[in-house]
Amino acid sequence: MNSFWSVGSLMNSFWSAGSCRHWCFPFEIDGVQVGWVPPKVASQLKSYPKVFNMSPGGAVSLSNSLDSYTRRSEAVDAVLQSFRKQGSFQCLKGWRDEKYSVMNRFCDPPLLWMERAATSLFGVKRYGVHINGYTVGASGEVRMWLARRSPTKQTYAGLLDNMAAGGVAAGVAIQHTAVKECAEEACVPEELALKAQPVSTVSYTYEDEEGVFAESQFVFDLELPHDFTPAVGDGEVQEFYLLPINEVQDLLATDDFKPNSAMVVLDFLIRHSFIHPDKEPFYQEFVTGLHQL
Description:
By secondary structure, the protein is α+β, with helices and mostly antiparallel strands. It contains nine helices and 13 strands.
């Protein structure tokens, strides 16, 4: 399991000593920081002074005239649409027409919505759901359902994933998203998906060539009956596997897992005591690495 240390470091790379964080500009709305703007993005925002301000202290903020959720959302979206047409940023080629809420904390009222594909340009927090589907045998043995991502997925094609997962769109409830993703990706009936229990969150912030990704996943555990088999739904998955928990644990030590999904599985293993602090010297580091946003 020590190899998970590299996954944790990767998914929390924004907080490492050599990251771009030291060069990024805080993104503020109404004096509250909601994200981080990389220098290459900030330089482009200077061309839109009616929307974005560059303060002497280095923060990027929105114009004072944008004083409502709707005005902010529409003004920022117009800039992003312009970037998209100009081909300014690679990440916008994956435009999804999905609106994500932007706020400092999940409990705060949203300050605007932003196209999902653009969120990494501003380092704003993104939220999602991940569902651990598993079974428990008569003698207590645990098996977990894993999904193999479609080879045509935009990201992490062909890698192992949780049974179902997806982003939380603006104005959509957490449990509704979990039930929807279960149905769409794994053909789990609503009455069964509603039995999924919210158990944890997994949070991390990483950087790559497309920007800053600050993400928090709401984790659900769903114990499934032995006579139920997930089925491929919307084509985002190519196959499902039911594996003994020790095999799942071994797979975490490989490069075959989507990194954030590996973190969700690690969280499951820790919560269900398959990883024990007396046997795993990096136990505390693992737990800490699952909650850095």
